[in-house]
Amino acid sequence: MFELLPDETERFVTAMVGDRDETLAEMAAHGDEIGFPTVGPEVGAFLRLAARMVDARRIFEFGSGFGYSAYWFAEALPADGEIVLTEHDDDELESAREYLERGGYADRAAFESGDALDTVERYDGPFDVVLIDCHKSGYPDALDAVRGKVADGGVVIADNAMESGAQDFEAILDAVEGTDQEALDADTRGVADYLLEVRDSDDFETAAVPLGQGLTVSYKRA
Q1: CA distances in angstroms from 202 to 18, 205, 218, listed in the order given
Q2: Apex CA 61: angle with CA 3 and CA 167, to 5°?
């Protein structure tokens, strides 16, 4: 495990998030209590800002847990906007519904149980924002599934681009720097292949953001 930011920088980034509502504070405490790794307030605030900057009306999440990232996104949506949450665990999805109801955002949310790859096939685009935060080996498949459904000028954001506990960051770094990697585990290979694809694709312009456990933000070119 490594630290993405020096302590003072991390304190500054956290302080710049500002106040959060009571529901978000409860969600963060719930994540800590059950050992569920949320994106955290620094990434949450970035996700909300990204949605505002592209004037998002429709958002799709590959992997939603109990709705922490979706709650941040929902704050940026208009009243007639839509965010699609996907989650295998029905209990966590029900918790997401309860939290978004408490915040007044459930009316703009679709709660989909099961495999996100199956779910996205049932939805037409375009989506203004897509968050990929599912099992790491599935990142390339998630990109393939949604590539044609991202709006021109929209963004695809991948969480855990650097760290998640499931992948080997040093091997990912070697891969994106061009070192041949033949024997990678499935999660490391999934993240590395995803990063190489969005970095080198003509469809996207991509930058890395060292917040949380590392993000990439990929802008869909027209």
Answers
A1: 37, 8, 11
A2: 35
Q: Edge-to-edge, what's the strand order for the sheet holding 150-158? A: 109-113, 82-87, 58-62, 127-132, 150-158, 215-220, 204-209
Please write the tens of the pLDDT for every residue from 14-28.
Answer: 999 988 899 999 999
> What phi and psi, each to the nearest 5 degrees, are found at residue 93?
-65, -35
Domains of the chain: 7-220 (3.40.50.150)
**SS3 state at 141:** helix
Residue 164's CB is within 10 A of a number of other CB atoms, namely: 18
Q: What percent of the chain has pLDDT over 70?
A: 99
- For strands 109-113 and 127-132, give the pairing: unpaired
Given a cut of 70, whether residue 70 has pLDDT beyond it is: yes
